[in-house]
Amino acid sequence: MPQIIPIKDLKDTAAISEMCHQADSPIFVTKNGYGDMVLMSMEVFESMQKKWDMYSEIEQAEAEIARGQAMPAREGLASVRAKYGL
């Protein structure tokens, strides 16, 4: 379940830092009852960044497949083996 805090709670920076490091997901900050910001620890950010990078690579691979720029794995491996004498 996501954590949601009002913007006025940001005054206690030490408590916010502790909350970010204890949470395994982003913390949503509201202003006047509406979403305003998202806070997270560096660890959570890096984890999310890795997922975004992986999804981007999958998306690129799927686009290459759709454009016909891919070959079956067996053919690709055979090509590499022949090229490098493996």
Which characteristics define this entry?
3 helices, 17% strand, alpha+beta, elongated, 86 residues, YefM-like fold, 2 domains
Mind explaining what this structure looks like?
With 86 residues, the protein is an alpha+beta fold. The protein folds into 2 domains: 1-40, YefM-like fold, CATH 3.40.1620; 46-86. 55% of the residues lie in helices and 17% in strands. It contains 3 helices and 3 strands. It has helices at 13-22, 42-66, 73-84; strands at residues 3-6, 27-31, 34-39. Strands 1-2-3 form a 3-stranded mixed sheet, with no helix packed on it. β1 (3-6), α1 (13-22) and β2 form a beta-alpha-beta unit. It is elongated and about 65 Å long. The mean pLDDT is 94.
Strand arrangement within the widest β-sheet reads 1-2-3
Gyration radius, rounded: 22 Å
Give the oligomeric state: single chain
Number of strands: 3
Percent of residues in beta strands: 15-25%
**End-to-end CA span:** 51 Å
H/E element sequence: EHEEHH
